[in-house]
Protein backbone atom coordinates (compact mmCIF):
# COMPACT_ATOMS: atom_id res chain seq x y z
CA UNK A 1 0.00 0.00 0.00
CA UNK A 2 1.41 3.38 -0.98
CA UNK A 3 -0.88 6.34 -0.44
CA UNK A 4 0.13 9.91 0.29
CA UNK A 5 -2.70 10.33 2.82
CA UNK A 6 -2.16 7.21 4.96
CA UNK A 7 0.30 6.15 7.64
CA UNK A 8 0.43 2.46 8.56
CA UNK A 9 1.31 1.79 12.21
CA UNK A 10 2.61 -1.69 12.99
CA UNK A 11 3.02 -3.02 16.53
CA UNK A 12 6.22 -5.06 16.31
CA UNK A 13 5.22 -7.35 19.17
CA UNK A 14 1.60 -8.13 18.28
CA UNK A 15 1.93 -7.50 14.52
CA UNK A 16 -1.34 -5.53 14.69
CA UNK A 17 -1.60 -2.96 11.90
CA UNK A 18 -3.51 0.29 12.28
CA UNK A 19 -4.09 3.05 9.72
CA UNK A 20 -4.03 6.78 10.23
CA UNK A 21 -5.93 8.36 7.37
CA UNK A 22 -5.70 12.05 6.54
CA UNK A 23 -7.76 13.98 4.01
CA UNK A 24 -4.71 15.89 2.74
CA UNK A 25 -1.32 14.72 1.48
CA UNK A 26 1.15 13.92 4.27
CA UNK A 27 4.50 15.67 3.79
CA UNK A 28 6.36 14.53 6.94
CA UNK A 29 5.80 13.19 10.44
CA UNK A 30 7.52 13.00 13.82
CA UNK A 31 7.10 10.57 16.71
CA UNK A 32 7.03 11.83 20.32
CA UNK A 33 9.74 10.76 22.76
CA UNK A 34 7.30 8.49 24.61
CA UNK A 35 6.11 6.87 21.33
CA UNK A 36 2.48 7.74 22.17
CA UNK A 37 1.94 10.69 19.82
CA UNK A 38 2.57 11.41 16.16
CA UNK A 39 2.87 14.85 14.55
CA UNK A 40 1.75 14.80 10.92
CA UNK A 41 2.57 17.69 8.58
CA UNK A 42 0.04 18.14 5.79
CA UNK A 43 0.21 19.82 2.42
CA UNK A 44 -2.62 22.23 3.41
CA UNK A 45 -0.44 24.05 6.00
CA UNK A 46 -1.77 22.16 9.02
CA UNK A 47 -0.02 19.97 11.55
CA UNK A 48 -2.09 17.23 13.18
CA UNK A 49 -1.34 15.64 16.54
CA UNK A 50 -2.46 12.01 16.80
CA UNK A 51 -2.64 9.99 20.00
CA UNK A 52 -1.50 6.55 18.81
CA UNK A 53 -1.51 4.70 22.15
CA UNK A 54 -4.45 2.42 21.34
CA UNK A 55 -6.89 3.39 18.62
CA UNK A 56 -5.40 6.42 16.83
CA UNK A 57 -7.29 9.62 17.61
CA UNK A 58 -6.75 13.13 16.28
CA UNK A 59 -6.21 15.27 19.39
CA UNK A 60 -4.77 18.54 18.08
CA UNK A 61 -4.40 20.81 15.06
CA UNK A 62 -1.79 23.55 14.68
CA UNK A 63 -2.04 26.31 12.09
CA UNK A 64 -0.22 29.50 11.17
CA UNK A 65 2.99 28.41 9.48
CA UNK A 66 3.35 28.77 5.72
CA UNK A 67 4.01 25.90 3.29
CA UNK A 68 3.44 25.91 -0.44
CA UNK A 69 6.50 24.57 -2.29
CA UNK A 70 8.98 23.11 0.19
CA UNK A 71 9.04 20.27 2.69
CA UNK A 72 8.58 21.66 6.21
CA UNK A 73 9.24 19.55 9.31
CA UNK A 74 7.90 19.94 12.82
CA UNK A 75 8.86 18.43 16.17
CA UNK A 76 7.95 17.98 19.81
CA UNK A 77 10.04 19.77 22.40
CA UNK A 78 10.48 21.85 25.48
CA UNK A 79 10.08 20.70 29.05
CA UNK A 80 8.04 17.44 29.01
CA UNK A 81 7.57 18.01 25.26
CA UNK A 82 4.96 20.68 26.03
CA UNK A 83 5.57 22.54 22.75
CA UNK A 84 5.29 21.92 19.04
CA UNK A 85 7.75 23.72 16.76
CA UNK A 86 7.72 24.04 12.99
CA UNK A 87 9.63 25.77 10.26
CA UNK A 88 7.87 27.90 7.68
CA UNK A 89 8.28 29.36 4.20
CA UNK A 90 7.88 32.87 5.63
CA UNK A 91 11.36 32.56 7.25
CA UNK A 92 10.03 32.12 10.79
CA UNK A 93 9.95 29.38 13.41
CA UNK A 94 6.48 28.76 14.88
CA UNK A 95 5.93 27.47 18.41
CA UNK A 96 2.57 26.26 19.73
CA UNK A 97 1.51 25.05 23.16
CA UNK A 98 0.94 21.34 22.66
CA UNK A 99 -2.11 20.98 24.95
CA UNK A 100 -4.02 24.12 24.03
CA UNK A 101 -2.96 24.54 20.40
CA UNK A 102 -2.29 28.24 21.03
CA UNK A 103 0.37 29.83 18.83
CA UNK A 104 2.89 31.21 21.34
CA UNK A 105 5.60 32.63 19.10
CA UNK A 106 6.62 33.23 15.52
CA UNK A 107 10.39 33.69 15.75
CA UNK A 108 11.88 35.90 13.01
CA UNK A 109 15.56 35.75 12.15
CA UNK A 110 16.06 33.72 9.00
CA UNK A 111 15.92 35.18 5.50
CA UNK A 112 14.86 31.98 3.73
CA UNK A 113 12.50 29.05 4.19
CA UNK A 114 12.97 27.31 7.54
CA UNK A 115 12.60 23.64 6.68
CA UNK A 116 13.90 21.89 9.79
CA UNK A 117 13.64 22.45 13.53
CA UNK A 118 15.00 20.35 16.38
CA UNK A 119 14.88 20.70 20.16
CA UNK A 120 18.04 20.04 22.15
CA UNK A 121 17.44 16.74 24.01
CA UNK A 122 19.72 17.85 26.88
CA UNK A 123 18.36 21.39 27.24
CA UNK A 124 14.57 21.72 26.79
CA UNK A 125 14.92 25.51 26.51
CA UNK A 126 17.07 25.35 23.37
CA UNK A 127 15.83 24.95 19.80
CA UNK A 128 17.78 24.81 16.53
CA UNK A 129 16.41 25.81 13.13
CA UNK A 130 17.92 25.27 9.67
CA UNK A 131 17.06 27.46 6.71
CA UNK A 132 17.55 27.83 2.98
CA UNK A 133 19.45 31.02 3.86
CA UNK A 134 22.35 28.61 4.65
CA UNK A 135 22.25 29.27 8.39
CA UNK A 136 21.43 27.30 11.49
CA UNK A 137 20.08 29.36 14.37
CA UNK A 138 20.08 28.36 18.01
CA UNK A 139 17.20 29.79 20.00
CA UNK A 140 17.03 30.17 23.79
CA UNK A 141 13.35 30.01 24.68
CA UNK A 142 13.15 31.82 28.00
CA UNK A 143 10.81 34.37 26.38
CA UNK A 144 8.41 31.61 25.27
CA UNK A 145 8.50 29.99 28.71
CA UNK A 146 7.87 33.34 30.39
CA UNK A 147 4.90 34.01 28.10
CA UNK A 148 3.52 30.54 28.80
CA UNK A 149 3.75 31.14 32.55
CA UNK A 150 1.99 34.49 32.25
CA UNK A 151 -0.75 33.01 30.07
CA UNK A 152 -1.31 29.72 31.88
CA UNK A 153 0.15 30.25 35.33
CA UNK A 154 -2.98 31.50 37.09
CA UNK A 155 -3.19 28.54 39.47
CA UNK A 156 -5.90 26.80 37.46
CA UNK A 157 -5.30 23.47 35.79
CA UNK A 158 -4.36 24.04 32.16
CA UNK A 159 -5.31 20.57 31.01
CA UNK A 160 -1.83 19.10 30.73
CA UNK A 161 -1.35 15.57 31.93
CA UNK A 162 2.09 14.73 33.23
From TrEMBL:
Lineage: Eukaryota, Viridiplantae, Streptophyta, Embryophyta, Tracheophyta
PANTHER family: WD REPEAT PROTEIN 26-RELATED, WD REPEAT-CONTAINING PROTEIN 26
Keywords assigned: Repeat, WD repeat
One Pfam assignment: WD40
Highest taxon of the lineage: Eukaryota
WD-type repeats, residues: 107-149
Keyword Repeat tagged: yes
Record-given protein name: CTLH
UniProt KW Repeat keyword: yes
